[in-house]
Amino acid sequence: MAEKHAISALSSSCYRCSSDSGDQAKFTKCCLCNRWAHTKCVNLVGIKSENICNVRYLCDVCFTEVSALKKFINDIEEFKSDLKSITAKTDKMMEIVDNKMARMEEISIKVDEATEGLTGH
Known about the structure:
Layout: E1 27-29, E2 36-38, H1 60-115
Antiparallel strand pairs: 1-2
Organism: Portunus trituberculatus (Swimming crab)
InterPro entries: Znf_FYVE_PHD (IPR011011), Znf_RING/FYVE/PHD (IPR013083)
Protein name: PHD-type domain-containing protein
C-alpha cells in the first residue's frame, strides 16, 4: 500500500524529478521498491493527502517489470496448454502406430503360415 511517511534523509528526493522540495504529505512511494515520488510527478494529484495511504502505487520501473512478468507467466501458461495438446495428439498417434504394427505382425504371421512349405521354381 502506498504510504505517507516522514521522508528520511536517505530517500528524500523524488525519483522522477530528483527534487526534495514540497510538502512531505505530497509524496508517495512505490509499494514494491520503495522509491519516493511527488504525487504530482506520478499523476496522483487528484487524491487527497489523507487518502494517499489507500493507494497502491507502482513506479514506472516496477510497473514495467510486473507487466513483463505477467506476460511471461501468460506465455508459459499458453505453452503448457499447447504442450498438453501436442502430448495428447502424440499419444493418439502412437496408439494408431501400435495398432498398425500389431496388425502388420498378424498379417506377417499369416503370410508365413500360408507360404510354409512352398518351394520356389
